[in-house]
Model the fold of this input.
Amino acid sequence: MFSWENPDDRVAIVQMNGELRHAQLELLSAQCATHQLRLRFSTDDLARYGQPEVLRKAIAVASDLNDYYASIEKLIPREAAGANAGGATLDQEQILEATTRVLAYLREQRTRYYAGGEPLSAAHKAVMRPFFSPGILDRVRVVELGGARITNPPFYSDAKARGFVNLPQITHMPSLTFIDVVVFNERITERALFHGLVHAVQFQILGPDRYTLAFVDGFLRTNSHFTVPLEAHTFALESKFVQSPAEGFSVEEQVRGWVRERRY
Done:
């Protein structure tokens, strides 16, 4: 059993949590795909017309994963299990107010950082060209804060007072996309740049208003930044990029596909 007092164990624990986050993102992608099946097809039709071999394999995997994570859940200390449960809700008027405040914040930050932003370098464009259109690569500006960090929005104090405990900690994120400006808390890495550009594509296709509403609605439904469909899709595409950086694919087509299928 690991001990935080052991330096070697601390390294292993950090690696373990990195792999756990990767597994969570892959599970979220599978959950989104399954949700679309649930919306479009009845269980009776799936059982009757779905390919039996594919169904059996999917059911076996889901069952094994459920058993595995259920066995872990039983061992989680009760305090940790309930620490971020949340449970706060908003009515329609409050949702509109929250969306308005988030959108205003995004636009204010975009104005703040745009003037000091720089176009993507030729080297970064070369890496990202197999995944993004020239329009996005030419339009997006990047800002590297170099030690400084973006502070959490001023409305966080009100949200916490209403019971929202799982707000995304912007200060600790590698980057944040403000419409067409990607701001990096630390240095620019290819992985963080890819992530930020996916959000820029989402902003472009959905528009800032619809993007913000989708994000707020997704957060209220899932009570977690990582499980908001906009974010889950971005992490899934990021994972695909990291695993096979030489195999290009169109991020724009992927995003448009999710829009058509109403997965955001």
Remarks:
- The CA atoms of residues 141 and 181 lie 5 Å apart.
- Residues 79-85 have pLDDT under 50 and may be disordered.
